[in-house]
Amino acid sequence: MRTSYQKQITLNLPILTLGQSEPLPDRGRRLLTVCHLPVAKIYSRPSMLATRVWKRAPRLSARTLSTTRLCNNETPRNSLTRSVEEENKGLNSMDHLLKVVRDHTNPAYHRIVPIRTPILWSEALLNTAPRQARETPSVAAPEELLVPRTMGDSYSELVLPFGSSIELMEQYTNASGGIRMGKLMEHLDSLAGSISYKHILGPTVETLGRIQERGFYIVTASVHRLDVLAPLDPSRDLRISGQVIYTGRSSMEVAVKMEAIGKNLPDETVLIGRFSMVCRDAYTHSAKAVNPLVLSTPEEKALYSLGEDIKNRRQELALRSLSRVPPSSSEAADLHTFYLQHGQEAQPQDGCERVWMGDAITEKTMLMFPQERNVHQKVFGGYLMRLAYELGFTNSSMFTRGPVRFLSLDSISFSRPVPIGSILRLSSQILHTTSSSEYQTLVHVGVKANVVDVTTGSEQTTNDFRFTWAQEHGKGSPTPRQVVPRTYQEAMLWLEGKRALKIGAEIRDRRTR
Asked: According to the UniProt entry, where is the signal peptide (predicted)?
């Protein structure tokens, strides 16, 4: 008997945000209430995402698409255009402003603070034992006593002398003779953490000490974007630098950049990234206030404004996520047109090879060892970034059947830490594919990191990564391959990938004009 999936949503769907469940905003609930979306079952467990409302996701068909009435919510198209304009303005301005502010910093304090733990794992295990009753948490300093910091106080840099050190280059080289981007991502995450600690502890800090002594710790909440602006040149040295550009009550926006330097050539910006860091109390794990920024120059004020824009834009994108609101009518029309061209059981007639999204998955399961821990005795976030990048690269290469070029990290969300000794399952899936005049294939890839409970077999998502790779014309399969969603959940992922590729393409296009 055919099951009808046509029901009206009237429940308050839980949304998972930074590892906690919170009710859907009133506006989003009203939208879902008046829009008839195909739903098999609404989960009441707080750990389920709204995009995963299918107990058994039905396949897409002309019937389900035609009977699905979507709200005339046209915000994505207009908001995407606005987001692209703001991203371009931010990238162009940030590149210049970061250089100006750096030139006014004290070179004596440019060093980074190591955030890899210096203590033995056996000692760390002893430190995690239950504290004696006499040990009480330190009293937090009142917010008014927090010393204001300048942007220069947190500035940090690391120079990798690839051009002058054959031995170092050997450690970072990939199979094609280039530089391993995954290892550079480890440095970027480590740098963002070091910058955040310097902002709170001061520019003269050399070591972090124990978390119980500090009374706080810092974690990466998310990565907004990492945009590649120029190819990596293995013959030149690489400078990785950054600083805090905006502070909230307990959060910090950190801007990082990579520059090719040396060889008697002008410095060239290779990559710009934006990290969101949050401060937590070491004992209660609740939000802890961070030092405010003092702005003394027009450039610092401009950077601060850019940091605030990044925070607001990230929140706006989260509210427009398809896990919160339905697709717009234009997106529904795009999906239906794509279904008519590629979603039928017969192979499409446009010369493309169809690949079902459910078949475009590559997985990797690993045991997390203490050698990859940070000062919080959890798995180092940069290590997870490298694992996700390399798995996504592998999946993209196999899908396109040829070499691919990294274009951007579109987002990373960190829901919960990964414990040492845990089993981590990484799953990479091709979410959207397209082509352009510059590239034969553009691939948007999602990578999820789940911690597996060996006693129950259940999994909890710890990280969600989104990347974009591209393949140049003539480098891959002569027959283009098109990923096609088969279920409603996959269709939402397909639309999210379409949004990400549109933003990335317009950012690159406007920068080359």
From this structure: none
* Dihedrals phi, psi of 258, to nearest 5 degrees: -115, 140
Do the Cβ atoms of 474 and 400 come closer than 8 Å? no
How high is the pLDDT of residue 39? 36
Question: What is the per-residue DSSP string for 296-309?
Answer: -SHHHHHHHHHHHH
Class for the domain spanning 81-121+145-317:
alpha beta
Spatial separation of the C-alpha atoms in residues 191 and 223, rounded to whole Å: 13
Could you tell me the residue ranges of all domains in the chain? 14-67, 81-121+145-317, 347-511
Are the C-beta atoms of residues 142 and 186 closer than 8 Å to each other? no
Q: pTM for the whole thing?
A: 0.80
| Half-sphere exposure of residue 330: CA atoms within 13 angstroms, side-chain side | 9
The DSSP bridge pattern shows strands 353-356 and 481-484 to be parallel
Burial degree of 442 (CB within 10 A; 0-12, 13-18, 19+): buried
- 109's CB contacts (< 8 A; 6+ apart) are 153, 155, 203, 204
Backbone region of residue 11 per phi and psi (left: phi > 0; alpha: psi in -120 to 50; beta: other values): beta
**Cβ–Cβ < 8 Å for 231, 177:** no
Kindly report the CATH number that applies to the domain delimited by 347-511: 3.10.129.10
Which H or E run includes 389?
A: helix 381-400
How many angstroms separate the CA atoms of 115 and 125, rounded?
18
pLDDT band, residue 316 (cuts 50/70/90): confident
Q: How far, CA to CA in Å, does 166 sit from each of 159, 162, 173, 181, 325?
A: 15, 7, 10, 18, 52
